[in-house]
From TrEMBL:
This is Heat shock protein Hsp20. The lineage of its organism: Archaea, Methanobacteriati, Methanobacteriota, Stenosarchaea group, Halobacteria. It holds the Pfam family HSP20. CDD domains: ACD_sHsps-like (cd06464). It comes from the Archaea. The keyword Signal does not apply. InterPro entries: A-crystallin/Hsp20_dom (IPR002068), HSP20-like_chaperone (IPR008978), Small_HSP (IPR031107). Keywords: Stress response. Belongs to the small heat shock protein (HSP20) family. Residues 41-154 form the SHSP domain. The keyword RNA-binding does not apply.
């Protein structure tokens, strides 16, 4: 009976190959996620589009915000992280006068996006504007101080 093959002889080799393939795939997925999430720090699915461009002396962020007014939007820069959020209430009224409405519907919409900037920016020189449903944020890069400074030793 020594000549008869054992059914589980090749299973160790098969499991080892499968394990190597899974590890390779996992490393590939992690790399893709790291590349994608290194800049985009938003939680959940993005409901609004955000573009980040490097224009040499400044980063320019454009965000689609159709129907949002300037007062509906909030921008916050913390270190190298830019947070953009918006909240608005949209109402539709059907019927006559406001006191005797038959049907009135309100809808609240909001979004929140965060993006990590590749380099430091000058927070005091940031400019933002909304035009035709597009929020444009210009973030001038922080110029490194090349002037030599003396450092006191305590």
């Amino acid at each position: 009976m020594a000549d008869r093959p054992r059914p589980f002889d090749g299973i160790d080799e098969l499991l080892e190959r499968l394990n190597r393939q899974i590890e390779t795939a996992a490393r590939s997925w992690e790399t893709q996620l790291d590349d994608r999430s290194r800049l985009d720090l938003s939680m959940g699915g993005a409901e609004t589009s955000l573009d980040l461009a490097d224009e040499g002396e400044a980063f320019v962020v454009t965000v689609d915000v159709p129907g949002y007014e300037s007062d509906d939007l909030e921008l916050r820069l913390t270190g190298r992280t830019l947070a953009v959020s918006g909240d608005r209430e949209h109402s539709q009224e059907f019927g006559g006068e406001e006191d005797s409405y038959i049907r009135r519907e309100r809808e609240t919409e909001s979004f929140s996006r965060q993006v990590r900037l590749p380099d430091p920016v000058d927070a005091d020189a940031v400019q933002a504007s909304v035009n035709n449903g597009i929020l444009t944020i210009r973030l001038p890069k922080h110029e490194p101080d090349e002037e030599a400074r003396s450092i006191d030793i305590e």
